[in-house]
Known about the structure:
Helix content: 25-40%
Strand content: 25-35%
Shape: globular
Number of strands: 6
Order of helices and strands: EEHHEEHEE
Amino acid sequence: xxxxxxxxxxxxxxxxxxxxxxxxxxxxxxxxxxxxxxxxxxxxxxxxxxxxxxxxxxxxxxxxxxxxxxxxxxxxxxxxxxxxxxxxxxxxxxxxxxxxxxxxxxxxxxxxxxxxxxxxxxxxxxxxxxxxxxxxxxxxxxxxxxxxxxxxxxxxxxxxxxxxx
Length: 165
């Protein structure tokens, strides 16, 4: 599901946003991984970074699918910005469920992404949520383009990184 609304990116610039909602089953996770890889290639990440991003998104989605409430869908929101790619992935969860941050999978996420955060929130606090108070588990990832970390942005006022059609 594409979102034509623009969002304010972390670096203060307009971000382009794409929302993907899939069943939280292992057979659907490759579609999310493929989307992440395609966006990264279009944004001119090097091949190692593209593969790192694919693996990180796959690990985040597999982690969330394992704790999803029943057959609830997995929602992944990709935001392309001048600095790179920001990803929020979330699933509805039962009260008291938290994002596991103590295993090998979490170590993989921290290694492959420039920033990673896991938390619980409500549908009203996440991108593409329904605005309600139902609990969700969220994993957020950032993968920056070389020389584009916030505070390291090079060049002048520049434009957003655009995804080619």
